Protein: DUF1007 family protein
Amino acid sequence: MNTRRLVMAGLATLLAPMLARAHPHIFAEARLEIVSDDKGEIGELRNVWRFDELFSASVVLDFDKNSNATLDPDELKEVGQTVLDSLAEYNYYTSISDNGKSVKVSKPDSITVDYKDNQLLMIFAVKPAETMPLKGKLSFGVYDPTMYTAMDFPTDEDLSVVGDTIEACDHQVVRPDPDEVLAENKDTLTDAFWSDPTGTDMSKLFATRIEITC
Structure:
């Protein structure tokens, strides 16, 4: 598998072998801010992803066209465009629940990419594809539905809310215990899930999330 295919497999999980999808191959530290607007609705979700050095190095090898061992502005822009196009199928790794209803996000305008301290950094914002008033119980998270890329929030502060309206709501970070998830869902987590998590959408049960109650 050449490096461009690795990028596509890791970030879009389009080329990952079926049985390998249930195990992370790429690791990223994430930060997510849920922002409310002046209408008392969810305005946008701001993402910052920092990828592990091994994967970052592989991206440099593939996109470093002038062979200067780094990524120049035009090369960084190409990486961002590749990810922007690839992750649309996976809702940009975004999980939103509006009182039990799943909500998609709109395609972001762009994904800003940087390369610092041997790590690839991606910054972008997404907006809910439909209006989301701050009412009832809302949930937000970031995860790869195929489990090929592990998205980790190092501290609870990496999942936060921004804006007077949303800050007035109750909010808490939930970090599911894998053993408890397995025990509670043993009848539904079948072999089909482990061989193709995308087909079952059950991997979100394991994902860290922030729950907001207004």
